[in-house]
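Reviewer comment 2.1 asked that we show a complete input and output for one of the modelled complexes. We chose the adenosine-5'-triphosphate case, as it is the one discussed in the main text.
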Amino acid sequence: MSVEIKGVSKRYGKVVALDEIKLSIEKGEFFVILGPSGSGKTTLLRVLAGLETVDRGEIILDGRDVTRVPASRREVAMVFQNYALYPHKTVMENLTMPVESEMSREEARELAESIARKLNIAELLNRYPNELSGGQQQRVALARALMKRPKLFLMDEPLSNLDAIQRISARKLIKDIQRDNSITTVYVTHDQVEAMALADRVGIMDSGRLIQVGTPEEVYNNVANDFVASFFGNPPMSLLSGEFLGIKGRIGIRPEDVVIGEGELRGRVSEVEFWGDRYLVYLEINGSEMRAFHGSRLRVGEQVRFTVRRYSGPWDDGK
Ligand SMILES: Nc1ncnc2c1ncn2[C@@H]1O[C@H](COP(=O)(O)OP(=O)(O)OP(=O)(O)O)[C@@H](O)[C@H]1O
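Response of the prediction step:
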């Protein structure tokens, strides 16, 4: 299903939750909406689902104007942070119910078992929701949405309650099912790694506006402004006054573009984090802080030389 959002705005009292959003999503695309808390991500998803009306603009699904069509008639499936499972049904019943009318009982049970195995909840199929942990409930909710193979998948932080290892396998499963069935997916997160891992394209939101849209690589390598610079990446760019490079205004520097151990610039190591394959080093330069990746552990307090290979900006100091 293709999605077109045409100049959609939505206010709650004085709060502008969505400000003239324009966006086209292709059939089969995995689109991730990334933004800080309160930027309007959930509102955009709810508007697409039909759970929220718009003040202005149109929503077109597969060429059909659904702006005023209720949620139940939009052929979308949603997984929200606050998953709602049927409390008086077992996990198996929760999974098979949505597809009761589409396949035989046996087929539904087989499909449920195969999805449950992949999400590591196969041993929970006979339990009731109140006998599950938060993370287990979230995986059941995800499994239930995956049973249905909808035309449009709307997911709002569906992995927020999972631990780091579960997140990686659930992420892969979502992507596999989405790709195998070419299900158009709009996925909301504030997790950088998740966004970069999953997205065909990503849209960065701030204060109800869509600031930049592109493939993760495009956005990563060509940030549109200082907000995206300070937000996109793991960790994002350091924003600094460009003076130390002889540049007027503020610039953004990725940690991998700082080469420690060569050049004329000097900084003091103020903190070091072990990242497995490398170290994240915090450098202090004339009272500002900058992050850099480095291959070996440095001592806190040590003075080091460094160069900057690449930067973004400059942007006005006054914003
Ligand atoms: N039902 C509501 N009534 C009043 N204000 C609301 C309502 N829903 C959202 N808002 C406001 O609209 C803005 C956007 O909220 P939204 O939930 O879309 O943000 P978000 O990016 O999803 O945030 P988070 O990452 O914290 O979930 C916020 O300022 C929020 O307080």
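The first helix runs from residue 41 to 49. We note this here for comparison with the apo prediction described in Section 3.2.
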